[in-house]
Amino acid sequence: MRWGQSVEQRAQRRKVEGPLSTGSQLDRKFRVGLVLYAVLAALAWFTLGEEKVLLGNRLVELRLLPLIVIGGMVLKSVLARQADRIRRDRE
Predict the structure, then answer these.
(1) 34, 73 in Cβ contact below 8 A?
(2) What is the rounded CA–CA span in Å between residue 14 and residue 33?
């Protein structure tokens, strides 16, 4: 929020600019998000032990399961970023 702007001015600016952030802001947020995913993955890797769990008649290391979930979130973020780039290029 910018200082000195009324609610009406901010609403008018949102109508003109749209609700989305600019491309450079989204790229910065994307990079920060990937770094945070990497930190979360490292914490999961070093926190969980090397125990194995039975998953579909197969023994799987317990520490791999959160990495698969985090990998799915990273994939979702990458796809959302690409979709947003395509939408911005059309405008």
Answers:
(1) no
(2) 25
First to last CA, the chain: 25
Q: Is 6 left (phi over 0), alpha (psi -120 to 50) or beta?
A: beta
Range of the domain at 84: 21-90
Number of domains in the chain: 1
Instruction: Confirm whether 73 is domain-assigned.
Output: yes
Question: Does residue 86 lie within any of the structural domains?
Answer: yes
Helix (H) or strand (E) holding 59: strand 59-61
Low-confidence ranges of the chain (pLDDT < 50): 1
pLDDT digits (tens, 9 = 90+) for 32-49: 999 999 999 999 999 988
E strand or H helix that includes residue 50: none
Domain-embedded: residue 14: no
